[in-house]
Request: fold
Amino acid sequence: MRKITSSGNTHGLLVKYAIKIVLSTLLSILLLSVICSFIVLKLDIDMSVLQYLGTGICIICGFLISFISTSGFKNNFLVLSMMSILPLLVYTVVNFCVNKPSAVFIIVKLVGVILSALVVSLMRSSKKSR
Reply:
């Protein structure tokens, strides 16, 4: 993909980026939730483990969303990966407000998602420097 510049016609590029963010967020949360639900159902795992699985799902989704949405770009990986996880962060905060789990899990989820996006941006920028 091309670079995002302030003078060029980048409307189509930004629309593709926004569509990648929305689709990767929806699909990753949906698929990982279905997989974890299937595992919990088949293995008859206790419901107290669900908070831990939800935290893992959010962190893995943050990694996948950042990785998918920044593919094809040549620069600004940190900004693009942080922007790509915004819908996931909003989803996490809304989920916290509705379900009221302990505050530790919301902090761990938010920090984990941000760190996973940071790791993806570092991976992408290190590949670029080679």
